[in-house]
Amino acid sequence: MGKSIWGRTTLIAVLTAASIILVLPSLTDSLPVAWKEKSPKIHLGLDLQGGVFLRLAVEIDKAIENTTLRYADDARAILREKGIPVLAMAKNGIDGFSLTLPPGDFADRAMKGLKEGVGTVDYTLGSVTSSGATIQARMTPGEVQAIRANAVTQGVETIRNRIDQFGVREPQIVAEGEDRIVVQLPGVKDQQRAIELVGKTALLEFKLVDEGASVEEALKGNLREDDQLLYLKNVEPQTGRATKTPIVVRKRAVLTGDTIKTARVNFQSQQGGAYVSLSFDNRGARIFDRVTAENVKRRLAIVLDDTVYSAPVIQERISGGEAQITGSFTPEEASDLAIVLRAGSLPAPVKIIQNVSVGPSLGRDSIQKGIRAAFIGGFLVIGFMLVYYRFAGLVADVALVFNILFLLAGMSALEATLTLPGIAGIILAIGMAVDSNVLIFERIREELRSKKTVRASIDAGYEKAFWTVVDSHVTTLITSMILFQFGTGPIKGFAVTLSMGVAINLFTALVCTKVVFDYLNARRPMQTLSI
Question: SS in 3 state form for 352-387?
């Protein structure tokens, strides 16, 4: 027997043994614990094991407005450093603002300083009167377009970072259109917690409390232009009842969450409540140090998404870049808050426009129907090959079994997610597996009719059908790659199983079946072939 046959037979045996080892953890739980824990598995998608499906709308205009306000704060800071006072700041649409300066020679100095400091905003000098001057500012069209283009992309990445830290296996988080994000969380049972984690903007701000403002007047709508009315959230530890207390804070944030380096959960030793410890980067630490030094004995509100979680009194200057967020958190709430702060705030608020909870019972029903369809399709294909091609059909059926085994092993090794369309891809791969053998067997039949020997007919059949089989598989593989590149979750699952099935089928059709015929001919040249 030739070395080539032994080499191919050994390769098939090794692949078969390795495939069985990889596939078993995905098929049964009756395995040693070490085997199950260390082995990769096939994961079930949302449509098979249930979970949460969310479609989010990104409020892109709000992202532009938030960026405009940050540029306005930067402009005021630049002018403050140059000793130029700003009497008022007002919004001018979602991408513009105006600054009012006092009388004097401030206008020219301000324009020169602003044009040096911020290159993504166009400044023009407006009216100049005896009562003061006005500077009009508007973001450049390129900056506005960049914010629009990045709002969804950054939102996808931020949500993905949060979900990864939350521990969900194989989530699907993809952009849809110009302002939509689709989130699929397989296996998630706590729907409300997932919604809060994904949808929280997580805009953290530190704002000084306006101690001189009247809360009663603020509730009536009488507020200073640079103040805003927020609510301080309190939770009673005994009853868990949440209350909200009105509080007036400055609109301008002295520090924001984009300077956070780490956020972690800690527990109070006496009360046992959870809180979140923050660590700022170098820039944030310097700002926090300056703010606490300048505002000793004043209250500093810690605001997350326009809700005040605490407003402690600054007792002394705080150096080192450390802070805490307290607020009667449960361990789960504190953990989720730390996750969103570490992952960063969303560039724009998101609105949940579709919220579907998929039950596991639907998944079990889908799996059963998918397996039933696969068995029926496989049985019909195997039966057809046996009846039509006889012994050669039996060889093709054995190769089909190897094809399915190798496919499942490949999915296990990659820890791929199996979806209902993925099962359809497996069924399609079963059909394509025997299609290659049909091409080869018909070529062999033609050679036998021309009175060639069995061995010569088999060799010629494989040789002449080789490029036809390869061409058909390559075109299918290109199509599946396009589906994977541009498709969403379920379509990607179909593309993965189809592309893997196509690649494996080339091996089983051209190697596994050929080695059987070569082995039989090596023992004793075949005089006839049942085909």
Answer: EEEEEEECHHHHHHHHHHHHHHHHHHHHHHHHHHHH
What confidence score (pLDDT) does residue 254 get? 85
Query: Checking DSSP bridges between strand 274-280 and strand 322-329, what pairing results, if any?
Result: antiparallel
Q: Select from 308, 521, 155 the least CA-distant residue to 299.
A: 308
Rounded (10°) angle between helices 3-27 and 513-523: 140
Q: Which amino acid appears at position 108 of this protein?
A: D
Q: Give the count of beta carbons closer than 10 Å to the beta carbon of residue 417.
A: 24
Domain boundaries, the chain: 3-49+359-523, 62-142, 200-357
Calpha distance 221→292 (Å, rounded): 30
Dihedral sign computed on CA atoms, order 62, 64, 68, 73 = positive
The model's pLDDT over 36-69, given as tens digits with 9 standing for 90+, comes to 667 788 877 777 777 888 898 988 888 888 788 8
Instruction: Read off the pTM.
Output: 0.57
- Name the one residue in this structure whose structure tokens are 């649409």: 93
CATH node for 200-357: 3.30.1360.200
Sheet holding 96-101, edge to edge: 88-91, 96-101, 132-139, 121-129
* 62-142 and 200-357: identical CATH topology: yes
DSSP string, 265-283: EEE-TTT--EEEEEEE-HH
The amino acid that residue 198 corresponds to is V
The pLDDT score that the predictor gives to residue 362 is 57
Residues 6+ apart with CB under 8 A from 452: 460
Class (C level, CATH) for 3-49+359-523: mainly alpha
Tell me how far apart the alpha carbons of residues 317 and 190 are, in angstroms, rounded to a whole number.
42
Contact 425, 497 (CB under 8 A): yes
3-state secondary structure of 189: coil
Q: Look at residue 154 in the predicted model and tell me its pLDDT.
A: 80
Which residues 6+ apart lie within 8 Å of 210 measured at CB? 224, 227, 248, 249, 250
Return all residues near 269 (Cβ < 8 A) that are at least 6 apart.
none
Fold classification of 62-142 is Gyrase A; domain 2 (3.30.1360)
Cα torsion angle, 270, 271, 272, 274, sign:
negative
The first and second tokens of residue 516, run together, are 């059987």
DSSP lists the bridge partners of residue 206 as: 255, 302
**List of E strands, 359-506:** 417-418
Buried b (16+ CB within 10 A) or exposed e, 31-43: eeeeeeeebebbb
Other beta carbons within 10 Å of 467: 9
Q: Which residue has the tokens 């513009």?
A: 96
Tell me which amino acid residue 377 is.
G
Query: Residue 351 to residues 69, 103, 193: CA-CA distances in angstroms?
Result: 21, 45, 16
